Amino acid sequence: MKRNLAYVLLLMLATVASCSFTNKTFENDDKDKLLLDLITYVLEKGHYEPKALNDDFSVHVFEDFIDVIDPTKRYFMASDIAEFEKYKYQIDDEIKNTDITFFNVVYERLMQRMGDAKGIYKEVLETPFDYSENESISIKYDEEPFAADRKELKERWRKQLKYATLGTYDSKISHMENKEIESTDEHDHTAHSPKEAEEESRKSTETTLDEFFDFVNDLERKDWFVQYINTIVDEFDPHTFYFAPEEKEKFDTSMSGKFEGIGARLQKKAEGAKIVEIISGGPVWRDARLEVGDEIIKVGQNGEEPINIVGMRLDDAIKLIKGAQGTIVDLTVKKVDGSLDVVSLTRDVVELEESYAKSANIIKGEEKFGIINLPKFYVDFNDYSERNAATDVAKEVERLKDEGMEGLVLDLRDNGGGSLKTVVEMAGLFIKDGPIVQVQSKDKTKDVYDDKDERIQWDGPLVILVNELSASASEILAAAMQDYKRAVVIGSKQTFGKGTVQNVIPLNNMLRSNDHGDLGAIKITTQKFYRINGGSTQLEGVKSDIVVPDRYSYIDLGERDQSNPLGWDKITPADYKAWDGYIDYEKTIADSKNRMASSEQIKLIEENAKWLKAEQDETEISLNFDTYKEEKEKDKEQSDYFKSLTEYDSKLTFKSLGYEEALFTKDSVLREKRNRWHKNLAKDVYVEEAVNVLEDLKVNNIKQGKLASVKN
Fold it and tell me: pLDDT confidence of 453, banded at 50, 70, 90?
């Protein structure tokens, strides 16, 4: 893949140079037009399956952009859409001519309509809601027409705000009815009557909307233009995406699981940036002077005059707070108790522990198994030698082996994928050698990615857990282990179905020179990957050996439910030989299916999944309080009926590894996170069945002497 990709990118860069994308060419154009020109050029030359820019493409962009910026149809009116219609078949021509007239017209009207909306919701919330009236609201907004005039638009807002307020009103009424209020405190703001409850509920909704529009006010024109660019980009496939400079940084942080800063998650408030979470191991955590609830109001750089961040965009405030490892930031903080303090911190590399692989011992009687949870296939794109998913999983396997593991569960549920290189290396931990995945480029040339290391780090029983949200690299690993008959895959009927490869291209690299600053990057689909048996995971995903239902079973979540996915196909299989470690792979699967078929917990999960789907399909909501209460009572009865799902006890014991228990003495937050994880695992019927399968593989299906290396 690297050889072909490098060729494609070099060709693109060479062609760009010959097209003279210089500042001189664009000296009369703004940054937006430059972005549009660069991105459409990259898509045309580099995308695996580029789209033709024609009238059909134009219509899709038109409809999708309107839907993206006004999904509930509470800003634009029918007259606005009629005015926009003249651009419906012209957007393709605008793109070719680097013209952004359509965006400008829609953006200017959106700003006007959002200004109008502030007045409308204030007007609506001045009048009490009548919850005795028999009326309803449809939340299937895509089937609703745009409002014909301001009166109709105001009525739409009224229903939406009444719907938004209904839950708060019910909560206040219930509190008022169920709790005798004895407080005589003059600051007690608890509602004492239905009228007060209704008034306070409207006020709460107004506050929420004020905060929302405060956030919207922070958005700049460039933020809306990014939405427009990504509407165009999304027409190519759901995984091609433009990153503005700030979003590219967030993407890199997500993939590497680390960043340089102070180690706190912040939320914008009127008074400043509120600390809502302290990241274990970071500078704030180590310093221990700041706590959740403190509000940062000024930021200084190593003794320099501080900058007031009250009212500042949160992203801009975060830019001031973050910085290079070893530098000092001075934070003026309003403490939870109201006092002011200046706290100086030395910035450092902060690791997001929840992004990384974690493991635990599973103890069942005299047997001990291991489980590794992998949330994503993470990697530092700038330095592969840094922490990555493959090396971390290898370390956890060794640690589990040292503690006597007799079988391994690799949990890839909710793992959306990540680095292709790490999944190839990870698969190599469990087989001697051979192909792991096949990758095809747009010119139909094929590369086979092999594990060339003959060392097998774990040759014992292996189960892989997946669900509908296991995607991309997760599907590569599960498919390879399934094709080799190396592991038993337990989970949803099929995984997500993402069988495409993306590469991130910095747009600054496309220019000889640039006066516009950082232009961001585009993540573009350049290849498709295939199983070693030749089949694609695109759309179809990986079908589990043992299918078990979960809460997502009837919800539309997969690649097939996304917009503009690439199609399914197949290529010739690679040369590989199935794993010979198991005597009766099929019998193990059959025994597990029989257990699952007779499990009352599994039957209840299936029933719950169907109920959730029915709830999702209910799009007509009553705004009558009595009807709302009746529906809520029915939902409570169902919720109580399904309550036993969360009370299930597998009777398995989960225990942290020795190295981690040593960390608990200094890190109570980590201890609490692990205790919570273990508690959830003990209620997990899928993990319980994974252990049952490991027992079958260990006791009945492993060739004599196969585990000698493990025991040693």
Answer: confident
